[in-house]
Each structure stands twice: as structure tokens, then as C-alpha cells.
Specification:
heterodimer; A: mainly alpha; 14 helices; globular; B: mainly alpha; Cytochrome-c3 Hydrogenase, chain B; three-stranded antiparallel sheet; 12% strand
Chain lengths: 351, 393
Amino acid sequence: MIALLAADLPYWAQTLLRILGGLVAVLLPAGTIVYLFLFKMMSFMQSRLGPMEAGPYGSMQLFAEVGKWLQKEDITPARADRVIFKIAPLVVLASTFLLVAVVPFGPDAWFTNFEAGVFYLLAVSSVSVLGILMAGWSSANKYSLLGGLRAAGQLIAYELPMVLAVIGVIIQAGTMNLQGIVVAQNGGEIFGWNGLGNPYILTQFTGFIIFMIAVQAELTQTPFDMPIAESELVSGYMTEYSGFRFLTFFIAEFATAGVFSLIASVLFLGGWGVPFAWFDWKSIDDVSDWMNVVGPLIMFTKMMVLAFVIMWVRFSYPRFREDQLQRFAWKVLIPISLVNIMITAILKVAF
Amino acid sequence: MTSTESLIDRRQLAYIASQAADARLNVELETDGMTLNIGPQHPATHGTLRIIAHLDGEQVVWAEPSCGYMHRGYEKLTEVRTYPQVTSLVNRIDWLGSFANEVPFILAAEKLMGIEAPPRAQWIRTILFELSRIANVSLFLGDLGVQLGAITPVFMAFRDREHVLNLIEATTGGRFHPNFDRIGGLKDDLPAGFIDETRAVMKTLRNFCTEIEDLLFGNEIFQSRTRGIGVIPKDIAMQYGLSGANARASGIDWDLRRDQSLPMAWDKVDWKVWTHPDGDSFARCWIRLQEVRESTRIVDQLLDNIPAGPIMAKVPRIIKVPEGEAWVSTENPLGEMGYYVVSKGDLGPFRTKIRSASFNNISIVPWILKGVYVPDIITILASLYFILGDIDR
């Protein structure tokens, strides 16, 4: 869509269009996840109704909350490292925008069609660690410091299984380009049968599970939410933040959940595509232009399914302790993903 | 492993941690311990308890509870109240199971006056006592999830506890502070329809226990967070004067409802005192889960055969307690709760000593927190289960 519309426009107009598209791609999933899952689904799971007053079924609640946060005083602790304290939430949010930049939403609807897309993706996903460490250290609060250090340890530990889980996909697709991975899945076949294409959730199921666990840890959602552990560290690295800066952290948390769901749907569920066999498409050049409109909707549906799973786990589980978490990452996830890579490589050569 | 060995292990761990901290200090990194104040305002202490923890990294070198932030002086206040007025004070000690606080005080006063409540009043007292135990401990079961990061169980606990509170409200007129017990009996009889309603609620509560057992106790993460964490050996539990579920989880077969003969109805029904040999956090939580189940059983059986008759013994209109001293303690939701009442023959007590369970139960905190990690502080405190009003009185 973006590339399509921007084809003949001057550079500034293309840039503006990309920024607007990026805002939509980050904020729309975040808002939907917060309203549908955090406000409503969690309430239904806990035998309550959730917000009901603001708008029909409380659908305007999010705007009310944002309005409330914007009115609050922007507090900086007296002993805080002021500059870093103020930049930190923006760094965390920026990593979300960097992530969405390479995600393809349709045959021509992408922000950048980057050849080493997966590589870039895994690299920028750790930028948020920097922001969290900055927030934790600069707050001059012991709870924040503990939270920040825990976050750093955890995010670095779970980066590795995530990378290793994705390597299986890369081997199978033979490309690091996300668009290429989508095409490889939808144009592929499983033992000669192409009715479903070859979504890698079927052939890379282990990788998918490991990826989703790593995403859960990367997002610091509940079984792995020690960095923000509310009952221990109050809110970890976010303790000292209020008003708009807290809102930035909040948006970043759920926007990143949305973007990681998008990435998982690209890597494992076939992204924007439908199986090419349904319409007798042979390659990406045959894909008709209406996929630029339908594709984002398909992506959005898949994202909501995966985000549902992430939130479902978040609302049901207690949390690990850090040493248990590290043990789980290094002793369980990494060996399994290494075995997965080996098997994938052998099968790739065999077939 | 015997208990003394584990004690030595724990001290060794703490010693090693402090030595390691010193060693690092001496090398090139200028590391220093960090003193972390958990509380007085902290989501995990549900009240105003302050734990001063000296940390090395995330490991606790030493920790000490500092209480008194919510001291309301009830022992002193009883000296300027008449006997019937005291129940409205002691309601507020353990505010989740308030009716249970009134009973031992009233029993002590009755003991001094040499009267005994009629059987029907004893029966209803026991039912309300067990209902307040259920209201208290079922909230613990939900809250346990919150302390460990699972947010859903607490809402289930509030949902089902509501029914119990409704029953207490229907009977006494107060949801949290019933102020219903009187010297020589009770203020009122049971309301109409109480028995059927209570049977239905007890069934709901048993379902709730099953739900919590499935959702929380069967969860692997929960087990890995609680099993083997915060082990209190039997002799240590005795030395620190733990009572209630905390003692029973350490294998001490001790329950004042069974071991004492009080003018209450516990000895009339069939129930079981659960103990657990492990003494860890999981055991303490599990014992409480079983206790809720046993309480529902007790209430069910008591409902079957409530005797008819008056609910008030013959007592004078103006109550003057004869000179003397009496000690009565009961098995409250949090543990042993007792009142030592000294009377000089006045309208009010001359001196009252309140032995509340939580105060003794948290005395073990400095010992048990030595060498554990910060997340385990929360698990252990949650499993010890204290209520701030019960600590500070």
C-alpha cells in the first residue's frame, strides 16, 4: 500500500506517508489489544465486566485513560539522571517502530523491503533492553534498579532462543527477506500438496513454540514478568514514571506485543498471504493488487489470534524466579532449538 | 536432612553470601550491600509492615521485620471500655475474620463470670467462627496468586467470598465487623433461610477450593516457586512459637479446636486436622486449602443438628465481672489467638493481654529470610500469611 501509493511521489511525501503508516501499524494493534484483551477479555476471565461506562461497552475507556495520563504531573525524582530518565521511554517505544519497519503487509504494502529483514529485526528488538536499563538506572530507585537489571539479564537470555528458533525458518525459506519468507510459505507445498501452502507452523512447530515463549519473555509478560513484578518490585523499572512517560511505556508494552505477533504471523503463519494455489498464482508477480487491501486485514486477524494467546498466558500463570527463568532458557529452550536447527538442515538437504 | 542441618546450611549460605560480598569489596569492584526497605507502603505486605532487607545482589544477607506502623493500642483501650464494648474493638484485630476475634474474649469473660452460653448459642458461634475462617482463608488462597504474579485467582476468591460475607451480614448485620457475640450468648438468632443458603454456599466454596487447586496448586510454576522454599523445620517452628497452619505445615499436630475443651461445638462433629511434613511454602498454602475444605465440612455438619432453645444465658443487665484472671485462646484463622483478662470486679477489664497469631508468626522472618532471593521474600511472606491488624493490634 505504502510503496504502491508512494511510487511516484516526492521523497518528503513518501516519508510522511511512511510515518503515518507506521503510526497506524503500531498504535492500532496496541489500542485493540489493550481494549479487547486487557480490558475486556481479562475481565471476562475474572468474572467481571470490565469498563462499561465510557462509550458502548466501555470502548472509549482507552481514550479516557490516555486523557487521564496526559493530565498527570510529570514527576522526575530529585536524584534521577534527568536526561536519561526522560529519554528512556522514547528509546523503548522507538524499538517498536524500528521493528514494524520491515514487516510486509501485502505484496507491495511495506515500509522497506529489506534483504536481511530477519537479521535486522532480531537486532533492533534488543534496543528496548537499552531503554529499560536506562530507565532502571536513571530512576535512582532501588526497585527500579533491580527491575532494570533483571530485564537486561532476561532479555539477553531470551534473545538467543528466539534467534535460534528463527534460523529454522530461514533454512526452510532459504531467504532472510520477510517478503520472501511469506512467498515461500504461501507458494510452498507439503509433500506435493499445496492446498494450504506451507505455513511453517506445521513444519517448524517446535520453532514456533520456542519463538512464542521467547516473545513472551521478550515482552516481559506474565510467566516472565520479573522485571516489572508488581508484588515484588512494585513496577520495576517503571516505578518512578508518571503521566505521559508512563503512557509511553504502556503503549510500548502493548504495541510491542502487537508487533511481535505480526512478526510471528509472518514467520510462521504465512503473513499477509493466502495459499497461492487457491488462485493459481505462481510467484509474487502474479499476486493481484487487491491483496494490498486484504493482506493487512489477514495480517491483523493473525496478529489478534497470536496476541490472544500471549495475553491468555499472561492472565493465567504465576511468574518464575530469575534463576529458574535463566535455567529454562539455557537448559531447555536453547538445546531444543539447536536440535530443531539440525533436523531442519538435514531434512532440507534430504528433500 | 534433619532440621538442625538445614539450620546450619542456611546460616552457612548467609555467611558465604556476606563473605563473598566482602571479598568482592576487597578486590577491584567497590561493591557494597544494598539495604532495601520493603514497605511500609508496598503492594506485597497488604498493610504497613516494613521489612528491612540487606541485600547482596538479589540475595538477602539479613532481614528484619519492623512493625508498629498501624498500632492502635487495643490492649490499652480495653481498660477504658466496658466488657460488652470490647468486642467492637477486637473485631478490628484480624479484620478478615473478625467474628473469630470476639469469641476468645467473650469466652474469657464468661469463664470469669462462671456462666456458659446455651447450646444453641454455642452452635451458632461455631458456625460463624468457621464462616469467618472461610472468609479469611479463601481470600488468602486468591491473594497467593497475586503475590506470585497470577492475577486471576484473586477475583475468584473475591467472587466466592462474597457469598460468605453475605451470610455473615444476614446474621449479624455487619460484613466486616459483626460485633455480634455477647457475654452469655449471642445478640440474635439465625435469620430465616440461613440453613439452606449456607448449604449452597458451602458447596460453592468446595468448588472454589477445587478450582484453586487446579488453577494454582497444580501449576508447575507455582510448585517450583513454593516447594522447598522457606522451609521451617519442626523444632524451629516450635522455638519461634508459630501457630495455626504455619505450625501444622511443619508437621506439628496441634489444633486448639481439637486439643482444648471449650464451650464450642467442634467436638460434636467429625473433621480432620491436616498436617504436612515438609514445612515449606507449598505445605503452608496446602494446609490452608485443606482447612477451608474442613471448615465447610464442619459447617455442613453443624447445620444438620442445631439444637433448639434460647440463645442467651441468664446474665445481669449490667455486667460486672468478678475479680480474677482468665486465659482463653482459640484456633483462629491465622493461628492461636488468646486473651489474658485481668478483672478487678469493675465494669471493664483491668488489664488485657492480646496474643495474636501473626505477631508471633512473623517473628520467624529474620531467620527464614536469611539467604533467600528477593522474589522468595514475597512468596515466604505470603505463605506465612499475616494480617497487619493482627500484628500491630
